[in-house]
């Protein structure tokens, strides 16, 4: 399993728009290549996304990841600030450390609750949603994306492990600082992939 983070580094709206396009393109490329891609979390914004964490697995996962790792450049006029002089926008894709071993059930409090629904006959009338809380830290996640309580419980443990890794891992902290350093460095040149114009047409990197 390969874990990747797509980040705008808290950059402006134009980068957030670009990041949303990139995430969708990565997921489409994964599907076309037969690579399993799972979006684990994302931070949405008014214009797109600020960041996203996703996992790739399968025979072609490493090759796909390598095609995206680094800083990505979009060359184009701002769609939200037409008179803005800036034409170059940058975001980054970085590899995250492997998620540590899942916490065991003795260290987690599981609570079940009613899953949401749109109403009518399709409402899930069973308590299939699960909230998992790590007792030592108070970190919690809620999952209702799967059909069964058992599957939601398993998914909750995985997301809880990811959240704990993000919050407590020194390696992640070092990685984040390094990622931002890379982002600023590559703004001076050498992006791994370059897109241009309102339709994000890809061109060869300079």
UniProtKB/TrEMBL annotation:
Domain of life: Bacteria
Prokaryotic-type class I peptide chain release factors domain residues: 114-130
GO molecular function: translation release factor activity
Family label: Belongs to the prokaryotic/mitochondrial release factor family.
NCBIfam families, per database record: release_prfH
Protein name: Peptide chain release factor H
């Amino acid at each position: 399993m390969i874990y990747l983070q797509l980040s705008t580094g808290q950059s402006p709206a134009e980068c957030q728009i670009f990041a949303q396009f990139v995430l969708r393109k990565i997921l489409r490329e994964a599907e076309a290549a037969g690579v399993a891609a799972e979006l684990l979390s994302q931070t949405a914004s008014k214009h797109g996304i600020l960041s996203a964490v996703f996992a790739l697995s399968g025979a072609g996962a490493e090759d796909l990841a390598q095609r995206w790792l680094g800083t990505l450049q979009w060359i184009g006029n701002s769609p939200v600030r037409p008179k803005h002089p800036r034409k170059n926008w940058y975001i980054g894709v970085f590899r995250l450390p492997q998620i540590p071993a899942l916490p065991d059930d003795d260290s987690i409090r599981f609570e079940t609750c009613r899953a949401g629904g749109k109403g009518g006959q399709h409402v899930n009338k069973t308590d299939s949603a699960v909230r998992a809380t790590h007792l030592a830290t108070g970190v919690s996640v809620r999952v209702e994306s799967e059909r069964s309580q058992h599957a939601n419980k398993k998914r909750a443990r995985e997301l809880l492990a990811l959240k704990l890794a993000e919050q407590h891992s020194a390696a992640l902290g070092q990685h984040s600082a390094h990622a931002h350093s890379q982002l600023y460095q590559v703004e001076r040149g050498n992006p791994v992939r370059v897109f241009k114009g309102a339709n994000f047409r890809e061109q060869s990197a300079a």
